[in-house]
Amino acid sequence: MAESEHTASETVAQRVDADDTLSLLQDLVRIPSPYFEEEEIVEFVHDWLDEAGLDPEYHRVEEPDITGYEGRNVLARLEGSDPDAPTLLLNAHVDTVKIVDAWEEDPFSGRIEDGKLYGQGACDMKGGLAAVLVAFRILAEAVDAGDLDLAGDLLLTAVVDEEGPYGLGTDRLLRDGLLDDVDAAVVTEPGPILAQSDVSNPALILGARGRFLYDMEIRGRAAHGSQPHKGINAVVDAGRVAETLDGLDVDSHEKLGDGSVCPIKVEGGSQTLSVPERARLMVDRHVVPGESREVVREQAEAAVEALDLDSEVAVGFRESPDPGIKYGPYVTDPDHALVGSLEGATRRVTGVAPETAYFASVGDFNYLGDPDRGNLPTVILGPDGENIHSAGEFVYTDEVVEVTEILVEAAADLLGE
């Protein structure tokens, strides 16, 4: 984009009103929205977009077999003038984790103090949700006013169930073909707090590890608890498997770092004075490229076989609505045009170049970036904070505003005529 066009996009970005943006964020935080209970906030987002004349649409999300879930995403599109120009996706989730009991104040207060806005989900990720909503509206207003010409489309998706077990909202967008014309994506999750390296905002997160969840059944033999030598204790053997997997050799990647293994749950035994005949072990496995489902299964099976247990161990994975639902690892090319637009926008908004890093865990961005799924150049850019998923969660208010401005700048640069 020419310098004169950069100046025009900066003028559009300067329309971001901090008070207006933070007021919207407070409204969002004050609506309880734990995953699978998002209907009120979904309607709020839809109505907010509708009142701004942005023609939002609902998109139905259903999963009848395991969770029985029924919900709705909200979508809005700003159409450009050139069907051959790129389409940019702004993706944010509306849900939070289940409400944490340890809060010492109203978890939905939206209280602002010392540059921090408090509330369940304030950082993860209602700050990012507010940023994409305001950025989308400002860009639409600039286009309507004739102050900005866009060649490419801008698609906004406010999705449900990111914090739930399967990420059903973004998964359904992909399955229903609603992202088929998208060329690149920005997800406004808080990035630095869960980065593999020590970075702070402004930062661009250019990839993420993937994840599998082992679900193993250990079958022993029951016996009277006073004579344990006559049985095979499935709980004890589950512990041995957990310890072995905890020390499993994992692969490493030059950008994403090392994979990891973490036993997270052991269940077994229920009767008094009985040797447990069955146990269940669940193990979290974060992976890097090359550690496929087949590879991580074979590694676990080999580790179990080497233990030579008397119990029978069946290595499987968490039940899923579809085998295609997986969190694959991905890395976005730092030379991609989206990254360049975000870097330039960050410099103009903040006065400094963004740091780059990679995400330690998983989220909807994996569905978008995974070469086997969305296969989209995907960047995580979001306001940071502390105490995500716990009491006392907050987001830095200045970062919410900065992210909004960066999104406006970058979208205008990438999609502009």
From TrEMBL:
<dbReference type="InterPro" id="IPR036264">
    <property type="entry name" value="Bact_exopeptidase_dim_dom"/>
</dbReference>
<keyword id="KW-0862">Zinc</keyword>
<keyword id="KW-0479">Metal-binding</keyword>
<dbReference type="InterPro" id="IPR011650">
    <property type="entry name" value="Peptidase_M20_dimer"/>
</dbReference>
<dbReference type="InterPro" id="IPR001261">
    <property type="entry name" value="ArgE/DapE_CS"/>
</dbReference>
<dbReference type="InterPro" id="IPR002933">
    <property type="entry name" value="Peptidase_M20"/>
</dbReference>
<comment type="similarity">
    <text>Belongs to the peptidase M20A family.</text>
</comment>
<protein>
    <submittedName>
        <fullName>M20 family metallopeptidase</fullName>
    </submittedName>
</protein>
<dbReference type="Pfam" id="PF07687">
    <property type="entry name" value="M20_dimer"/>
</dbReference>
<dbReference type="GO" id="GO:0046872">
    <property type="term" value="F:metal ion binding"/>
</dbReference>
<dbReference type="InterPro" id="IPR050072">
    <property type="entry name" value="Peptidase_M20A"/>
</dbReference>
<keyword id="KW-0378">Hydrolase</keyword>
<feature type="domain" description="Peptidase M20 dimerisation">
    <location>
        <begin position="207"/>
        <end position="308"/>
    </location>
</feature>
<dbReference type="GO" id="GO:0016787">
    <property type="term" value="F:hydrolase activity"/>
</dbReference>
<dbReference type="Pfam" id="PF01546">
    <property type="entry name" value="Peptidase_M20"/>
</dbReference>
